[in-house]
Design goal:
globular, mainly alpha, single chain, about 500 residues
Length: about 500
């Protein structure tokens, strides 16, 4: 089931919310938690019921291992942790990487091993990390006794089950036991509805309008078409903003849905395209993944203590592989890993002076965004030859041209630029340029969405000091103007549901 569907908005969500509130009132917190866990399982099974037993089985295994880790002392505890890691990474490896491994072996050896064409269970990349973090923390002694139903809701809570944010057990499970859930919080519900409406608008109206431009550009390149400079940049910028509004929209919907049920989820996006360095970009883009990789990969590798740049590079390469089973994703991780290494070396060289990003001046955000945009080519391209051909287009390798309709006013200034007809769905007509300009402005220079809606540090968990500073002040009143705009966004998004596509991160 998708958030951007009539079934979810008009059937599943109202029935689940009403059942939650009625059970909390008449049967207590435990009954409500059980209802929400069961509804989340139904939500997951509605996509493909065959994977529901896998989700439940993995849930039981991880809960059992977690119990053993909290109850056992001695050397056996590491064995339980190792078993949990093998189980979780084994499932992820089989479903996500087995065909990739077979294909790589075939390419290197010329063997004809048959691909199994395995279907990737939705959300496995996200809930696998949540369970690994739980087991590692249990091994470290940071987990107290956890009830099975609390753990089940933590893993399966439907707002974050499919595509995050990656929730930490220490942030979520204590909320399940709060008596505050028994009381309906009108402010939190209203803020949740606003955040959900804004996220749905980001997805159904903005991201899905940009999708044909990106799909056409990359699809034509995959067929061997040599795009010109303007065509290539039209396509990659469309994908740059499509991906942002698609994934940020999902994350904002998840936060909003959680608030409607009385829960707080972590922030996953904070204006990443405003970043003045790649270090800052990774503090603002997919923030829960960055936090997981830092705490459970980068620091165990040695962190800042030994081999800082090496550990950083390894972490980013593995982050690329986590996003997808393909060499394009591996090279995307390599690209970001190398860029981060360069960023850190530059910062170290200028550590005696002013803050490094300020030293770079006005070009810092432009250069950062350029590095990110070129990386998105690897992220989106079907294969490496397509990525290379697309990058050639972006640097003008295949020529520079403009639409024929521009000839009359371009020729006097740039007679060497020859006009020609553009491809269908890719022509940078005024409407296309306006759409790119507006979506780009809002992503780069527009207001922080969560702050604009009125969400404060009390509505998300738990923001770092710098994150809280970019949210609304505590106690910010609800504004009628925001409610009106939210209602308009919801109406426009619902009107666009019929043509809305699945979320991009569902395939990762």
């Amino acid at each position: 089931m998708r958030f951007n569907s009539y079934e979810f908005i008009f059937v599943f969500l109202p029935l689940t919310w009403l059942g939650w509130r009625l059970l909390l009132r008449w049967a207590g917190l435990r009954a409500g938690v059980g209802w929400l866990a069961l509804a989340s399982l139904v939500f997951y099974a509605r996509w493909d019921w065959r994977f529901a037993p896998l989700l439940v089985c993995s849930l039981v295994v991880n809960y059992g291992l977690g119990r053993l880790l909290t109850m056992t002392r001695g050397k056996r505890r590491f064995g339980y942790l190792l078993a949990g890691l093998i189980w979780n990474l084994g499932l992820l490896g089989y479903f996500k990487y087995w065909d990739f491994l077979i294909g790589t072996v075939n390419a290197l050896t010329g063997s004809g091993l048959e691909l199994e064409k395995i279907i990737l269970p939705l959300g496995i990349s996200f809930f696998t990390f949540q369970k690994i973090a739980f087991l590692v923390d249990a091994w470290r002694g940071r987990v107290k006794e956890v009830r099975f139903m609390d753990f089940a809701l933590f893993v399966m809570f439907f707002p974050q089950l499919i595509a995050g944010p990656i929730v930490h057990h220490s942030d979520f499970i204590p909320q399940i036991r709060e008596e505050e859930l028994l009381r309906f919080n009108g402010r939190r519900f209203s803020l949740g509805l606003l955040a959900f409406s804004a996220g749905l608008f980001q997805k159904c109206v903005v991201a899905d309008l940009l999708s044909p431009l990106a799909d056409s550009a990359f699809g034509l390149t995959a067929q061997g078409t040599h795009l010109r400079l303007l065509e290539g940049w039209t396509g990659v910028l469309a994908y740059t903003f499509q991906l942002f509004y698609d994934f940020a929209g999902y994350s904002h919907m998840a936060i909003g849905l959680a608030l409607m049920f009385g829960f707080r989820l972590p922030i996953n996006f904070l204006a990443p395209y405003t970043s003045r360095s790649l270090v800052e970009f990774w503090h603002r883009w997919h923030m829960t993944l960055s936090a997981f990789l830092r705490d459970y990969l980068y620091i165990p590798l040695g962190g800042n203590r030994t081999g800082h740049l090496r550990n950083l590079f390894i972490t980013l390469v593995l982050a690329g592989l986590w996003h997808g089973a393909g060499w394009t994703f591996v090279l995307w991780g390599v690209w970001h890993g190398l860029a981060l290494v360069v960023n850190h070396v530059w910062r170290a060289k200028h550590k005696a002076g002013p803050e490094p990003a300020k030293r770079a001046g006005a070009w810092a955000p432009v250069l950062t965004l350029a590095v990110v945009v070129f990386g998105w080519v690897l992220f989106r391209a079907h294969d490496l030859p397509t990525a290379w051909l697309f990058i050639q287009s972006m640097i003008g390798w295949h020529g520079i041209s403009v639409p024929i309709s521009w000839q009359s006013w371009v020729a006097p200034f740039a007679p060497v630029i020859r006009p020609r007809g553009f491809y269908p769905n890719l022509s940078p007509m005024p409407t296309t340029l306006i759409l790119l300009a507006i979506s780009g402005y809002l992503a780069i220079r527009g207001p922080r969405l969560l702050s604009w809606l009125g969400l404060s540090a009390d509505d998300v968990t738990p923001p770092a000091p710098w994150q809280a500073a970019e949210l609304a002040p505590k106690g910010t009143p609800l504004r009628l103007s925001r409610a009106i705009v939210g209602g308009l966004m919801l109406a426009l998004a619902i009107a666009a549901l019929a043509r809305s596509a699945p979320f991009l991160y569902f395939q990762f």
